[in-house]
Amino acid sequence: MDPVDELSRRGGVARVRTLREAGVSEYALRRSKEQCEITTVRQGWVALPDADPQTVGAVSRGVVLSCVTAAERYGLWVPAKSALHVAARPNSARIRVPSQVVVHWSKPVVLRPPDAAVDELVNALALIAQCQPFETALVIWESAMNKGLIDDARLRGLELPPPARTLLARARPFADSGLETIVIHRLRWMGLRMLPQAWVVDRRVDLLIGDRLVIQLDGATHTGVQRTRDIAHDAQLLIRGYRVLRFSYEQVMERWPEVQSVIMEAVAQGAHVA
Question: Residue 164 contacts by C-beta under 8 Å, 6 or more apart in sequence?
Fold first, then answer.
């Protein structure tokens, strides 16, 4: 078996033992090293020359990519770019990493497989609950739930740290984007009924407050055919007695007091009441 092909299949980085168990011979490994087709990352690990630098860096230091870095790898909605986060065993010796890298020395909720370079999602979420501000952590947790990668029934049976338990009690799978999670979280103090992804006039809306106030949130790529359809739907909502407020990503993330003020005034006018 060709070690290059097997490494490619495993993401470019793997343990030598795993390759050998998969059928790669000692001779094939040695020959590939001599021909510079693969390189030694650290004792017992090899990689392709063009393997992902973050993964190679983590493996070379005996850590795994975790927390928000792992969340990005799982395709979750992470509100802002962050420093590289890695996890190490609590009893690990001193880890030499660049100063900008955040190291979490923690016992994992779920055991890490010996071949892992990226942490298990549950472990990453548990670290996020302890590392990130509540709103950021809630966005990431609800993104994972919305994608079907985790569910509360599975998480309830695990030994989670207290901050993760708090998030589990709050997180819901219904928000279709991080913007929806943020808006709902920031408006919860109003004590009004809020339904994300509510079905109104033959289509889903981002958020329905009360009976009649529709909040639509436009992402950075909200253009073209999608925007045309949304404008047409807004018109149908308006002629049926709904009040529609539409906000952009930039407004929610950078100018929230203005957004909140508009919504509060609409509620004061009774726009949410049938």
Answer: 125, 126, 129, 130, 155
